[in-house]
Amino acid sequence: MKLKSYFPNKGYDVLFLCVYLILFIYAVFRVINVDLVNGWTDMCVQDHLFNFGGGFIRRGLGGEIIFFVQDYLHIPPLIFINLLSGLSYIALSYILIRLFLKRGYALNVLILSFALGGVLVYNFSLFRRDFLEVLLFGLIVILYKRMAFKPWIAVGNLTMIFGILLHEATFFFSIPLLILITNLKLNSIIKSTAWWMPSIIAFLICCVFKGSPESLPALLDRAAAHAPEAFEDGNTPYLLGFIGNKASEAFRIHIMMNFVFPVRIFSLPIPSLVFAVFYYLYIPYMTIAMIMAFTKRKTDQGAMSNLLKVIVIQFICLLPMWIVLSCDYGRVSFYWITSSLLVWLSLKDNEIPDMFTAKYNHLINNLFSKTFTRWLPSKPILTVFALCIGVVFCGQSLVGMFTSSLIHKLYIVVTQII
Length: 418
Fold this sequence. Notes:
By secondary structure, this protein is mostly helical. It is 68% helix and 2% strand. It has a two-stranded antiparallel ribbon with strand order 1-2. Strand 1 (262-265) and strand 2 form a beta hairpin. The radius of gyration is 22 Å and the shape is globular. The relative contact order is 0.13. The mean pLDDT is 91.
Protein backbone atom coordinates (compact mmCIF):
# COMPACT_ATOMS: atom_id res chain seq x y z
CA MET A 1 0.00 0.00 0.00
CA LYS A 2 2.84 2.35 0.87
CA LEU A 3 4.57 1.56 -2.44
CA LYS A 4 1.35 2.42 -4.28
CA SER A 5 1.33 5.85 -2.64
CA TYR A 6 4.69 6.63 -4.23
CA PHE A 7 3.38 5.69 -7.70
CA PRO A 8 -0.17 7.08 -7.83
CA ASN A 9 -0.08 7.27 -11.64
CA LYS A 10 0.93 3.61 -11.96
CA GLY A 11 2.62 2.99 -15.32
CA TYR A 12 3.34 6.66 -16.00
CA ASP A 13 5.32 7.06 -12.79
CA VAL A 14 7.26 3.85 -13.39
CA LEU A 15 8.04 4.93 -16.96
CA PHE A 16 9.32 8.35 -15.88
CA LEU A 17 11.36 6.83 -13.05
CA CYS A 18 12.98 4.23 -15.34
CA VAL A 19 13.84 6.87 -17.96
CA TYR A 20 15.34 9.09 -15.27
CA LEU A 21 17.43 6.33 -13.68
CA ILE A 22 18.80 5.03 -16.99
CA LEU A 23 19.77 8.47 -18.27
CA PHE A 24 21.11 9.65 -14.90
CA ILE A 25 23.38 6.61 -14.59
CA TYR A 26 24.58 7.28 -18.14
CA ALA A 27 25.25 10.94 -17.26
CA VAL A 28 27.33 9.87 -14.25
CA PHE A 29 29.33 7.42 -16.35
CA ARG A 30 29.92 10.19 -18.88
CA VAL A 31 31.34 12.42 -16.14
CA ILE A 32 33.73 9.65 -15.08
CA ASN A 33 34.80 8.54 -18.55
CA VAL A 34 34.73 11.83 -20.47
CA ASP A 35 34.48 14.95 -18.30
CA LEU A 36 37.20 13.92 -15.86
CA VAL A 37 39.50 12.85 -18.70
CA ASN A 38 39.02 15.42 -21.47
CA GLY A 39 36.95 18.04 -19.64
CA TRP A 40 39.08 21.04 -20.56
CA THR A 41 38.18 20.63 -24.23
CA ASP A 42 34.59 21.56 -23.27
CA MET A 43 33.93 25.28 -23.72
CA CYS A 44 31.58 25.33 -20.73
CA VAL A 45 34.21 23.82 -18.43
CA GLN A 46 36.71 26.45 -19.58
CA ASP A 47 34.35 29.06 -18.10
CA HIS A 48 35.67 28.00 -14.68
CA LEU A 49 39.10 29.43 -15.54
CA PHE A 50 38.13 33.07 -14.94
CA ASN A 51 40.35 34.31 -12.11
CA PHE A 52 41.80 37.41 -10.43
CA GLY A 53 45.27 37.04 -11.95
CA GLY A 54 44.87 40.29 -13.85
CA GLY A 55 42.80 42.02 -11.15
CA PHE A 56 39.18 41.76 -10.10
CA ILE A 57 36.89 40.43 -12.83
CA ARG A 58 33.34 39.03 -12.95
CA ARG A 59 33.20 35.25 -12.46
CA GLY A 60 36.77 35.31 -11.20
CA LEU A 61 35.88 34.12 -7.69
CA GLY A 62 35.04 30.65 -8.93
CA GLY A 63 38.43 30.20 -10.54
CA GLU A 64 40.21 31.43 -7.42
CA ILE A 65 38.34 28.90 -5.27
CA ILE A 66 39.23 26.10 -7.68
CA PHE A 67 42.91 27.10 -7.70
CA PHE A 68 42.95 27.43 -3.88
CA VAL A 69 41.54 23.93 -3.50
CA GLN A 70 44.14 22.63 -5.94
CA ASP A 71 47.05 24.37 -4.15
CA TYR A 72 46.13 23.55 -0.55
CA LEU A 73 43.92 20.45 -0.72
CA HIS A 74 45.61 18.99 -3.82
CA ILE A 75 42.29 18.22 -5.50
CA PRO A 76 42.62 18.52 -9.31
CA PRO A 77 40.37 21.20 -10.82
CA LEU A 78 38.29 18.85 -12.96
CA ILE A 79 37.52 16.61 -10.01
CA PHE A 80 36.55 19.55 -7.80
CA ILE A 81 34.40 21.17 -10.52
CA ASN A 82 32.43 17.98 -11.18
CA LEU A 83 32.19 17.08 -7.49
CA LEU A 84 30.79 20.50 -6.60
CA SER A 85 28.34 20.40 -9.51
CA GLY A 86 27.19 16.90 -8.61
CA LEU A 87 26.71 17.64 -4.92
CA SER A 88 24.84 20.87 -5.73
CA TYR A 89 22.55 18.96 -8.10
CA ILE A 90 21.84 16.30 -5.46
CA ALA A 91 21.11 18.93 -2.79
CA LEU A 92 18.83 20.92 -5.13
CA SER A 93 17.03 17.72 -6.17
CA TYR A 94 16.49 16.75 -2.54
CA ILE A 95 15.03 20.17 -1.69
CA LEU A 96 12.67 20.23 -4.67
CA ILE A 97 11.50 16.64 -4.22
CA ARG A 98 10.89 17.20 -0.50
CA LEU A 99 8.93 20.39 -1.19
CA PHE A 100 6.82 18.67 -3.85
CA LEU A 101 6.01 15.76 -1.55
CA LYS A 102 5.26 18.07 1.38
CA ARG A 103 2.76 20.04 -0.70
CA GLY A 104 1.29 16.85 -2.22
CA TYR A 105 2.19 17.49 -5.88
CA ALA A 106 3.28 14.87 -8.42
CA LEU A 107 7.00 14.66 -9.17
CA ASN A 108 6.67 13.86 -12.89
CA VAL A 109 7.33 17.44 -13.99
CA LEU A 110 10.84 17.34 -12.50
CA ILE A 111 12.09 15.06 -15.29
CA LEU A 112 11.71 17.88 -17.84
CA SER A 113 14.97 19.44 -19.04
CA PHE A 114 14.04 22.85 -17.63
CA ALA A 115 13.56 21.29 -14.17
CA LEU A 116 15.95 18.57 -12.96
CA GLY A 117 16.12 16.60 -16.21
CA GLY A 118 18.64 18.82 -17.97
CA VAL A 119 21.58 16.62 -16.97
CA LEU A 120 19.84 13.68 -18.60
CA VAL A 121 19.91 15.41 -22.00
CA TYR A 122 22.75 17.94 -21.95
CA ASN A 123 25.20 16.37 -19.42
CA PHE A 124 26.49 18.01 -16.24
CA SER A 125 29.26 20.12 -17.78
CA LEU A 126 26.96 22.40 -19.79
CA PHE A 127 25.39 23.78 -16.61
CA ARG A 128 28.68 25.25 -15.32
CA ARG A 129 27.89 26.62 -11.79
CA ASP A 130 24.13 26.77 -12.30
CA PHE A 131 23.10 24.09 -9.81
CA LEU A 132 25.03 25.81 -7.04
CA GLU A 133 23.63 29.24 -7.90
CA VAL A 134 19.99 28.08 -7.90
CA LEU A 135 20.64 26.04 -4.74
CA LEU A 136 21.91 29.15 -2.92
CA PHE A 137 18.80 31.07 -3.95
CA GLY A 138 16.55 28.22 -2.85
CA LEU A 139 18.17 28.06 0.58
CA ILE A 140 17.61 31.78 1.16
CA VAL A 141 13.95 31.51 0.12
CA ILE A 142 13.44 28.58 2.50
CA LEU A 143 15.18 30.42 5.36
CA TYR A 144 12.75 33.33 4.98
CA LYS A 145 10.29 31.50 7.25
CA ARG A 146 12.92 30.14 9.65
CA MET A 147 15.01 33.18 10.58
CA ALA A 148 14.39 36.58 12.09
CA PHE A 149 14.21 39.35 9.50
CA LYS A 150 17.58 41.12 9.95
CA PRO A 151 19.67 37.93 10.26
CA TRP A 152 17.88 36.60 7.16
CA ILE A 153 18.73 39.76 5.23
CA ALA A 154 22.38 39.55 6.34
CA VAL A 155 22.74 35.88 5.45
CA GLY A 156 20.80 36.46 2.22
CA ASN A 157 23.02 39.30 1.04
CA LEU A 158 26.22 37.42 1.86
CA THR A 159 24.96 34.31 0.08
CA MET A 160 23.70 36.11 -3.01
CA ILE A 161 26.84 38.25 -3.28
CA PHE A 162 28.79 34.99 -3.34
CA GLY A 163 26.47 33.64 -6.04
CA ILE A 164 26.70 36.84 -8.11
CA LEU A 165 30.49 36.83 -7.91
CA LEU A 166 30.44 33.24 -9.16
CA HIS A 167 28.24 34.26 -12.09
CA GLU A 168 26.48 37.58 -12.53
CA ALA A 169 23.42 35.88 -14.05
CA THR A 170 22.46 34.85 -10.50
CA PHE A 171 21.21 38.41 -9.97
CA PHE A 172 18.38 38.16 -12.49
CA PHE A 173 16.56 35.15 -11.04
CA SER A 174 17.25 35.92 -7.38
CA ILE A 175 17.37 39.57 -6.26
CA PRO A 176 14.09 40.84 -7.83
CA LEU A 177 12.15 37.95 -6.24
CA LEU A 178 13.91 38.39 -2.90
CA ILE A 179 12.94 42.06 -2.94
CA LEU A 180 9.30 41.09 -3.52
CA ILE A 181 9.49 38.52 -0.71
CA THR A 182 11.00 41.13 1.61
CA ASN A 183 8.17 43.46 0.69
CA LEU A 184 5.74 41.00 2.28
CA LYS A 185 7.11 42.13 5.65
CA LEU A 186 7.91 45.78 4.96
CA ASN A 187 5.10 46.75 2.58
CA SER A 188 7.44 49.28 0.98
CA ILE A 189 9.20 48.40 -2.26
CA ILE A 190 11.76 51.19 -1.73
CA LYS A 191 12.74 49.96 1.74
CA SER A 192 12.75 46.36 0.51
CA THR A 193 15.08 47.27 -2.34
CA ALA A 194 17.35 49.17 0.05
CA TRP A 195 17.86 46.05 2.19
CA TRP A 196 19.26 44.23 -0.88
CA MET A 197 21.54 47.06 -2.01
CA PRO A 198 24.74 45.13 -1.10
CA SER A 199 23.79 42.43 -3.61
CA ILE A 200 22.74 45.02 -6.20
CA ILE A 201 26.07 46.82 -5.79
CA ALA A 202 27.93 43.51 -6.21
CA PHE A 203 26.09 42.97 -9.50
CA LEU A 204 26.88 46.48 -10.72
CA ILE A 205 30.55 45.95 -9.87
CA CYS A 206 30.54 42.78 -11.96
CA CYS A 207 29.02 44.75 -14.86
CA VAL A 208 31.86 47.29 -14.67
CA PHE A 209 34.77 44.92 -14.09
CA LYS A 210 34.31 42.59 -17.04
CA GLY A 211 38.03 42.48 -17.89
CA SER A 212 40.23 44.23 -20.41
CA PRO A 213 42.82 43.25 -23.03
CA GLU A 214 45.52 44.58 -20.68
CA SER A 215 44.48 42.26 -17.84
CA LEU A 216 44.09 39.19 -20.04
CA PRO A 217 47.76 38.00 -20.16
CA ALA A 218 48.07 37.82 -16.36
CA LEU A 219 44.72 36.02 -16.12
CA LEU A 220 45.79 33.51 -18.78
CA ASP A 221 49.14 32.90 -17.07
CA ARG A 222 47.42 32.07 -13.79
CA ALA A 223 44.94 29.79 -15.52
CA ALA A 224 47.66 28.03 -17.53
CA ALA A 225 49.69 27.40 -14.36
CA HIS A 226 46.80 25.52 -12.77
CA ALA A 227 45.15 23.95 -15.85
CA PRO A 228 47.73 23.63 -18.64
CA GLU A 229 45.54 20.99 -20.35
CA ALA A 230 43.05 23.74 -21.21
CA PHE A 231 45.64 25.50 -23.37
CA GLU A 232 45.95 22.87 -26.06
CA ASP A 233 48.64 23.78 -28.60
CA GLY A 234 49.07 27.11 -26.83
CA ASN A 235 45.61 28.33 -27.88
CA THR A 236 43.56 30.56 -25.59
CA PRO A 237 40.38 28.84 -24.28
CA TYR A 238 37.42 30.04 -26.31
CA LEU A 239 35.45 31.87 -23.59
CA LEU A 240 38.52 33.56 -22.13
CA GLY A 241 39.20 35.02 -25.55
CA PHE A 242 36.07 37.18 -25.20
CA ILE A 243 37.52 39.07 -22.23
CA GLY A 244 37.92 42.72 -23.14
CA ASN A 245 35.66 42.55 -26.19
CA LYS A 246 32.94 45.15 -26.60
CA ALA A 247 29.68 44.22 -24.92
CA SER A 248 27.78 45.43 -27.98
CA GLU A 249 29.36 42.67 -30.09
CA ALA A 250 28.25 39.97 -27.62
CA PHE A 251 24.77 41.52 -27.54
CA ARG A 252 24.59 41.45 -31.34
CA ILE A 253 25.64 37.78 -31.54
CA HIS A 254 23.06 36.74 -28.95
CA ILE A 255 20.24 38.70 -30.59
CA MET A 256 21.06 37.19 -33.97
CA MET A 257 21.16 33.63 -32.59
CA ASN A 258 18.04 34.02 -30.48
CA PHE A 259 15.77 35.83 -32.91
CA VAL A 260 17.19 36.44 -36.38
CA PHE A 261 19.22 33.54 -37.81
CA PRO A 262 16.91 31.59 -40.11
CA VAL A 263 16.02 27.95 -39.47
CA ARG A 264 15.08 26.08 -42.64
CA ILE A 265 11.89 24.04 -42.46
CA PHE A 266 10.97 22.35 -45.75
CA SER A 267 13.35 24.79 -47.51
CA LEU A 268 11.54 27.78 -45.97
CA PRO A 269 13.71 30.15 -43.86
CA ILE A 270 11.96 30.61 -40.50
CA PRO A 271 13.43 33.22 -38.09
CA SER A 272 14.71 31.86 -34.78
CA LEU A 273 12.16 34.18 -33.14
CA VAL A 274 9.46 31.61 -33.95
CA PHE A 275 11.27 28.96 -31.90
CA ALA A 276 11.92 31.43 -29.09
CA VAL A 277 8.22 32.30 -28.81
CA PHE A 278 7.34 28.60 -28.90
CA TYR A 279 9.62 27.92 -25.93
CA TYR A 280 8.34 30.96 -24.02
CA LEU A 281 4.86 29.40 -24.22
CA TYR A 282 5.66 25.68 -24.17
CA ILE A 283 7.90 25.69 -21.07
CA PRO A 284 5.46 27.31 -18.59
CA TYR A 285 2.48 25.48 -20.10
CA MET A 286 4.13 22.07 -19.71
CA THR A 287 5.27 22.90 -16.18
CA ILE A 288 1.78 23.74 -14.94
CA ALA A 289 -0.08 21.16 -17.04
CA MET A 290 2.19 18.32 -15.86
CA ILE A 291 1.64 19.22 -12.21
CA MET A 292 -2.13 19.51 -12.64
CA ALA A 293 -2.54 16.34 -14.70
CA PHE A 294 -0.33 13.97 -12.70
CA THR A 295 -1.16 15.13 -9.18
CA LYS A 296 -3.61 12.54 -7.86
CA ARG A 297 -5.77 14.95 -5.89
CA LYS A 298 -7.57 17.84 -7.57
CA THR A 299 -5.16 20.74 -7.61
CA ASP A 300 -6.28 24.06 -6.18
CA GLN A 301 -6.74 26.56 -9.01
CA GLY A 302 -5.63 29.44 -6.81
CA ALA A 303 -2.36 27.66 -6.02
CA MET A 304 -1.69 26.84 -9.67
CA SER A 305 -2.51 30.42 -10.67
CA ASN A 306 0.07 31.49 -8.09
CA LEU A 307 2.68 29.37 -9.86
CA LEU A 308 1.85 31.09 -13.14
CA LYS A 309 2.27 34.48 -11.41
CA VAL A 310 5.77 33.57 -10.25
CA ILE A 311 6.71 32.05 -13.61
CA VAL A 312 5.61 35.15 -15.55
CA ILE A 313 7.45 37.57 -13.24
CA GLN A 314 10.58 35.42 -13.40
CA PHE A 315 10.40 35.44 -17.19
CA ILE A 316 10.35 39.25 -17.08
CA CYS A 317 13.30 39.32 -14.66
CA LEU A 318 15.27 37.03 -16.99
CA LEU A 319 14.54 39.04 -20.16
CA PRO A 320 18.15 40.36 -20.35
CA MET A 321 19.31 36.73 -20.43
CA TRP A 322 16.73 35.72 -23.02
CA ILE A 323 17.54 38.65 -25.31
CA VAL A 324 21.13 39.91 -25.18
CA LEU A 325 23.16 38.14 -22.47
CA SER A 326 22.83 34.51 -23.46
CA CYS A 327 21.82 32.10 -26.18
CA ASP A 328 21.87 29.05 -23.88
CA TYR A 329 18.17 28.24 -23.75
CA GLY A 330 18.84 25.09 -21.75
CA ARG A 331 20.45 27.05 -18.91
CA VAL A 332 18.13 30.07 -18.89
CA SER A 333 15.02 27.87 -18.90
CA PHE A 334 16.52 25.95 -15.96
CA TYR A 335 17.01 29.23 -14.04
CA TRP A 336 13.47 30.23 -14.94
CA ILE A 337 11.51 27.16 -13.87
CA THR A 338 13.52 25.85 -10.91
CA SER A 339 13.70 29.27 -9.24
CA SER A 340 9.95 29.73 -9.81
CA LEU A 341 9.17 26.33 -8.31
CA LEU A 342 11.32 27.05 -5.25
CA VAL A 343 9.46 30.29 -4.52
CA TRP A 344 6.03 28.79 -5.22
CA LEU A 345 6.58 25.75 -3.00
CA SER A 346 8.30 27.62 -0.15
CA LEU A 347 5.72 30.37 0.39
CA LYS A 348 2.12 29.95 1.52
CA ASP A 349 -0.63 30.20 -1.07
CA ASN A 350 -1.98 33.38 0.52
CA GLU A 351 1.45 35.08 0.49
CA ILE A 352 2.21 34.93 -3.22
CA PRO A 353 -0.64 37.22 -4.36
CA ASP A 354 0.52 39.78 -1.76
CA MET A 355 3.86 40.01 -3.59
CA PHE A 356 2.17 41.57 -6.60
CA THR A 357 -0.27 44.35 -7.46
CA ALA A 358 -4.01 43.75 -7.69
CA LYS A 359 -3.97 44.42 -11.46
CA TYR A 360 -1.20 41.88 -12.03
CA ASN A 361 -3.04 39.26 -9.95
CA HIS A 362 -6.26 39.89 -11.85
CA LEU A 363 -4.48 39.64 -15.22
CA ILE A 364 -2.74 36.36 -14.41
CA ASN A 365 -5.86 34.86 -12.82
CA ASN A 366 -7.77 35.54 -16.04
CA LEU A 367 -4.93 34.14 -18.15
CA PHE A 368 -4.83 30.99 -16.02
CA SER A 369 -8.59 30.56 -16.20
CA LYS A 370 -8.66 30.81 -19.99
CA THR A 371 -5.58 28.60 -20.48
CA PHE A 372 -5.83 25.79 -17.93
CA THR A 373 -9.42 25.43 -16.68
CA ARG A 374 -11.27 24.88 -19.94
CA TRP A 375 -9.16 22.00 -21.29
CA LEU A 376 -6.05 20.16 -20.19
CA PRO A 377 -4.12 17.59 -22.25
CA SER A 378 -4.44 13.99 -21.09
CA LYS A 379 -1.62 12.11 -19.39
CA PRO A 380 -0.69 10.18 -22.57
CA ILE A 381 -0.39 13.40 -24.58
CA LEU A 382 1.68 15.13 -21.90
CA THR A 383 3.91 12.07 -21.63
CA VAL A 384 4.59 12.14 -25.37
CA PHE A 385 5.37 15.87 -25.22
CA ALA A 386 7.62 15.43 -22.17
CA LEU A 387 9.60 12.61 -23.76
CA CYS A 388 9.71 13.74 -27.39
CA ILE A 389 9.95 17.57 -27.40
CA GLY A 390 13.16 18.97 -25.98
CA VAL A 391 14.61 22.43 -25.51
CA VAL A 392 17.57 22.98 -27.83
CA PHE A 393 20.42 24.05 -25.57
CA CYS A 394 21.91 26.60 -27.96
CA GLY A 395 20.90 27.45 -31.52
CA GLN A 396 17.47 26.51 -32.81
CA SER A 397 16.29 23.86 -35.24
CA LEU A 398 13.22 21.70 -35.74
CA VAL A 399 15.31 18.54 -35.69
CA GLY A 400 17.07 19.84 -32.58
CA MET A 401 13.79 19.78 -30.67
CA PHE A 402 13.79 16.01 -31.09
CA THR A 403 17.52 15.40 -30.69
CA SER A 404 17.35 17.38 -27.41
CA SER A 405 14.55 15.19 -26.10
CA LEU A 406 14.60 12.47 -23.47
CA ILE A 407 13.47 9.77 -25.89
CA HIS A 408 16.28 10.54 -28.34
CA LYS A 409 18.87 10.45 -25.56
CA LEU A 410 17.38 7.17 -24.35
CA TYR A 411 17.69 5.79 -27.89
CA ILE A 412 21.37 6.78 -27.99
CA VAL A 413 22.05 5.13 -24.63
CA VAL A 414 20.27 1.91 -25.52
CA THR A 415 21.99 1.61 -28.91
CA GLN A 416 25.40 2.17 -27.30
CA ILE A 417 24.68 -0.53 -24.72
CA ILE A 418 23.54 -2.97 -27.41
